Q: What sequence folds into this?
C-alpha cells in the first residue's frame, strides 16, 4: 500500500472512511460527524476513500452515480481528501495492517464511518474491529447509524435502483441534491442525442424534466440508454434530472 508522503509532520487527524458514490445524505452525515469530531478534538479533518470504485476491481457488473472524478471533486468541497487507488495487492491488506498504516501515516486521532463499513482483505474488518484496534493504536471511533428514508437505510445501492426504475424523486430525496449525469452529444439515426458517460447508472426509458446550461427542458431516455432532448440544445456536458413525467 503506497500513500502520498508529506514533507512535514501532520497534526492528528479525524478521518471519514467510505467509498461515497453519489455523496448522498447518508455520506454527508458521516462527513459532518467527522468535521464535528475534528473541531471538538482539535484535529485536522480528512476524508479517506478510493480513487476507483472497489466493485470494478473484481470485474463485478455495476454502475456508478458519479464518475470517480466527480465523486472526488464533490468530496473536496467538504474537506481535504486522501484517495488511494485500490489494486489487488491493496485489497489483500489485512484489517490491522490497514489500520496501523492509517494510524501511523495520518496520525489518526478519530475514525468515523457508517454502521456497515467494512475494510481489509475480503471485508474482514468492521466497526467492531475498528473499535478494538482504536484502543490499541490510540484513536477514537465514531459509528454513524443509518439515515432512514421510506423505512430503509439510505444507500448508494438504493439510489441506483431508484434511478434504474425511473424514480427520480426518490433518488433525489436520498441524494440530497438533484441527480446530475455527465454526457456528450452524438448522433443516432440522423438525430442529435446525448450519451451518458461510460459506467454511470441510466434512468429507465421515459420522459423526464431536466436542466442543462441553466435551462429546463424535457428529455426522453430511449431504450438502449440514449437521451433525446425535445428541443435542440448544443454543448450539453451535464444533465440534471428534476423528475419523471407520467
A:
Amino acid at each position: 500500500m503506497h500513500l502520498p508522503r508529506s514533507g512535514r509532520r501532520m497534526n492528528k487527524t479525524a478521518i471519514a472512511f467510505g467509498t461515497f458514490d453519489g455523496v448522498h445524505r447518508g455520506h454527508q452525515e458521516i462527513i459532518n460527524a467527522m468535521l464535528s469530531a475534528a473541531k471538538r478534538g482539535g484535529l485536522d479533518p480528512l476524508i479517506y476513500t478510493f480513487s476507483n470504485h472497489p466493485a470494478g476491481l473484481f470485474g463485478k457488473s455495476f454502475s456508478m452515480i458519479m464518475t470517480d472524478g466527480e465523486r472526488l471533486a464533490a468530496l473536496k468541497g467538504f474537506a481535504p481528501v486522501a484517495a488511494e487507488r485500490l489494486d489487488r495487492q491493496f485489497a489483500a491488506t489485512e484489517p490491522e495492517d490497514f489500520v496501523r498504516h492509517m494510524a501511523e501515516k495520518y496520525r489518526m486521532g478519530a475514525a468515523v464511518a457508517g454502521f456497515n463499513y467494512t475494510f481489509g482483505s475480503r471485508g474482514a474488518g468492521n466497526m467492531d474491529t475498528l473499535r478494538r484496534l482504536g484502543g490499541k493504536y490510540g484513536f477514537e471511533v465514531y459509528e454513524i447509524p443509518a439515515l432512514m428514508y421510506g423505512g430503509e437505510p439510505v444507500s448508494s445501492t438504493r439510489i441506483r435502483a431508484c434511478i434504474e426504475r425511473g424514480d427520480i424523486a426518490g433518488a433525489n430525496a436520498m441524494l440530497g441534491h438533484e441527480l446530475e449525469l455527465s454526457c456528450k452529444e452524438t448522433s443516432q439515426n440522423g438525430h442529435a442525442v446525448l450519451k451518458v458517460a461510460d459506467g454511470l447508472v441510466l434512468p429507465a426509458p421515459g420522459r423526464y424534466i431536466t436542466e442543462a446550461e441553466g435551462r429546463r427542458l424535457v428529455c426522453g431516455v430511449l431504450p438502449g440508454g440514449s437521451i433525446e432532448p425535445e428541443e435542440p440544445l448544443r454543448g450539453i456536458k451535464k444533465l440534471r434530472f428534476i423528475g419523471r413525467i407520467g
Remarks:
- The radius of gyration is 20 Å.
- The chain has seven helices and 13 strands.
- The longest strand covers residues 179-188.
- The first helix runs from residue 25 to 41.
